[in-house]
Every structure is written in structure tokens, then in C-alpha cells.
Amino acid sequence: MPVALPPCSILILAGGRGQRMGGRDKGLVEWHAEPLVAHVQRVVRGLSDDVVISCNRNQETYASYADQLVGDAEADYPGPLAGVIAGLKVARHDWVAVLACDAPQIDQALLEALLSLAVEHDSAAMVRQSGYWQPMFSVLPRRLLGMLEQAWASGERSLQKALLREPVQALQCADNDARLSNFNSPELLQ
Question: Is the pTM of this model over 0.85?
């Protein structure tokens, strides 16, 4: 009999510069007549009472999609690791699912599989596709905050490299898994 999954906070990373989108705020770019973040939020809302969005601009717009907003501690868009650290600091649950704002085809089944794998092994779980880790699709125990802060303090800026300092469970996904599509350029929105 499957074990009931514990509560999980959801951290949607929307704090980037949007360089491949011509500087536009990726989470607010429209796809199917809605901002990308709206698609992600609608999927995760049923899984959590704690949706946190890490954003560094347009907070008033993002506020309608989140229970909490956070921003990076440093200016100039330092990257996803900074957003994850900020999100873990405010997350209300011991488990935190980390997602990118530009993956509108994510589904609850993938998130539940990641959470189940993480809880079963009491460690981080991350999607792995074609031999590559996908840190924008992961579930982390909140207790990793101290380790991630130490990695940051030592100069690490890669979320993936920081997370791989500890054991990580792989959720293998097919190369063509549409749920993992990142819409990070105008061409991909077509």
C-alpha cells in the first residue's frame, strides 16, 4: 500500500533576467492566452497550501499566483541557486518542490513521483533525462538549506552542482517527455 505523501511547499523560480526572451519576464510571457506561471500554478495548487514564487521584478503581478513571494538576496539576477536559497528560507513544509516558471506542461503525477522518491530515500530527488540532471524539476528536503548556503558562500553558483554535493535520487524521464518542455525562447512558444 503506498505511503501517504507529506505536505510539500512549491517553489516556482521566476527570478531570471529572461535573456533568451529578449529581457521579458519569462513567467509573465503569454502561452495559450495566459502567463506561463498561471499554467504552472494551476497544476501545483492542488498539491500544496504553500506556493512560493521567487521573482525579482513584477511582484504585484506574481502575487496573485502565490502564497508567498521571495526575491534574491543579491541584485543583478544571481541565478537559480539564489532563488532556491530564498525559497527554502520561507517554505512552510519540510519538503519543497522546485520548478521553473517556463514549464507549463508539468503535471501532478510527475511532482508526486518526485516527492515519493525523495521521501522514500529521505534525500533530494531530481529528474534525469538522457543522462542529464534537470534541477528545475526537483524535490528537496528543506534541511538542505544550510548546505546550499555554504555552497553559495564558497562561490558555487550552479544549482545542479550545489545539489549534487549530497545524495540525489534520479527520476528517469524519456527524452521526449513533453511535461519537461521549457519555453525559454519566443520560438518555443509557437
Answer: yes
